[in-house]
Design brief:
Aspartate Aminotransferase, domain 1; 15 strands; four-stranded antiparallel beta sheet; alpha/beta; seven-stranded mixed beta sheet; binds pyridoxal-5'-phosphate; 401 residues; 2 domains; Aspartate Aminotransferase, domain 2; single chain; globular
Length: 401
């Protein structure tokens, strides 16, 4: 990868007190929250908004119809599937809940979630379980914090209707063994819904290889797309047969006074109205990633995060909080705490030095954080455009706090 081009393509890196001074530039370590988009993404969005203001949204969208049609194709290419398996959405949670609320659940049914499940997913499972008389049960983790496959195998029976798997959590670098877990769950007849929000754009995500039933992801994190974008992947057989819980005149066609027909593919999970500019921006972000070469990007993220993890781990008083340990691979999120200073204070004091990190709180991943007695951790998530000099500047700043 051409690092100089990558950085030149990322205008947000230049924002700082003195853009020509490497010691004052913007060290951006929040691609797990909302990344810096490549310039082409921002320009695509703005150009379309301008065009809407000139000719109205309908004509503006018609002028870009081929590009809009191509967005699902670009995402499909990234995931190793067909465009008909992709429904575009406005967030990962929208995509996740669109699928989840469409899975029939009755009294006595069981839903399994992981210890690192995301709050929005967990809340939805609790709401539906309450209404349906079903139960939500947590799959245990092993001693290193990875999803415990043997425990999952013991929990599975014919009453388990859905298994919710998280590939990478919001609060750390653990990478769950989701392919193996999906194989077990599917063999027992359960549907598998994979939250790949922190995986898409960060590590390889081949849905055919993973063999899951559905995948949700967002645009604004590692994919570097605009906010308010996301997508749902559905196994093609499901995309052609599953009835979404809510329909409109895009997901279905009104064919007679008593009849309607569902869209033939995953588009049945989309609504007609959407932010066209944001969707074009998402397409530009995914094409940018495909052009760079996803494998090279994944390798660059893995390299930067292991460098960072090692450097932070060597600092006195700093504890790296990532689960997974020696047993599993670790991804691009590095979570840590420092003795005697609250995560929020670390974030704020680093911001004064033009270094962006975020704080991940217990309320986002309640089961895991409660179990580990953590109220919050600092989250540093370097994308491929971050330089090693910037990582070292960040580590020195943490040491100096
Ligand atoms: C951010 C995140 C989500 C939610 O994504 P939205 O686009 O905000 O809905 C879901 N799961 C994980 C693991 C996340 O990190």
């Amino acid at each position: 990868m051409d690092d100089a081009r990558l950085r030149a393509d990322t205008p947000g890196l230049g924002s700082g007190p003195d853009p020509t001074d490497p010691a004052s530039g913007h060290v951006f370590l929040d691609s797990a929250g909302s990344s810096l988009p490549p310039g082409v993404v921002t320009e695509t969005v703005i150009a379309h908004l301008r065009r809407e203001a000139e000719v109205g949204g309908y004509r503006a969208a018609n002028e870009r119809i081929d590009e809009l049609d191509g967005v699902r194709g670009s995402i499909a290419e990234l995931l190793g599937t067909v465009p008909g398996a992709i429904a575009l959405s406005d967030s990962a949670t929208r995509a996740w809940t669109d699928f989840f609320y469409s899975v029939p659940l009755g009294p006595g049914d069981r839903v399994l979630i992981c210890g690192i499940d995301y709050a929005a997913n967990a809340i939805a499972t609790l709401q539906r379980a309450r209404a349906a008389g079903a139960s939500v049960e947590r799959i245990p983790s092993d001693e290193s914090g990875l999803l415990d496959l043997a425990a999952l195998a013991r929990m599975l029976d014919e009453r388990v209707k859905l298994v919710s798997l998280v590939y990478v959590p919001t609060n750390g670098g653990v990478v769950n063994p989701v392919a193996e877990a999906a194989r077990l769950a599917r063999a027992s007849g359960a549907l598998v819904l994979l939250d790949a929000c922190q995986a898409a754009g960060q590590l390889p995500l081949d849905v055919t290889e993973l063999d899951v039933d559905a995948v949700s992801a967002t645009g604004r994190k590692w994919l570097r797309g605009p906010r308010g974008t996301g997508f749902l992947y559905l196994r093609p057989e499901l995309a052609a047969t599953m009835e979404p819980q809510r329909l409109d005149l895009h997901s279905a066609t009104w064919t007679g006074p008593e009849s309607y027909e569902l869209a033939p593919d995953a588009r049945r999970f989309e609504f007609w109205e959407h932010d066209v500019a944001a969707r074009l921006g998402l397409g530009a972000a995914v094409r940018y990633l495909l052009d760079l070469g996803p494998e090279a990007v994944y390798a660059a993220v893995a390299d930067r995060s292991s460098h960072l993890r090692a450097a932070l781990g060597a600092l006195a008083g700093v504890t790296v909080r990532d689960l997974g340990g020696a047993a599993g691979a670790r991804g691009g999120i590095v979570s840590f705490t420092k003795d005697g200073i609250a995560p929020e204070a670390i974030r704020d004091r680093l911001a004064e030095r033009n270094i962006t990190v975020t704080v991940s709180r217990a309320s986002s991943t309640l089961l895991d954080m409660t179990e580990r007695g953590l109220a919050a951790v600092v989250r540093a998530s370097p994308h491929c455009f971050v330089s090693y000099a910037e990582l070292d500047r960040f580590v020195a700043a943490v040491a100096a706090l």
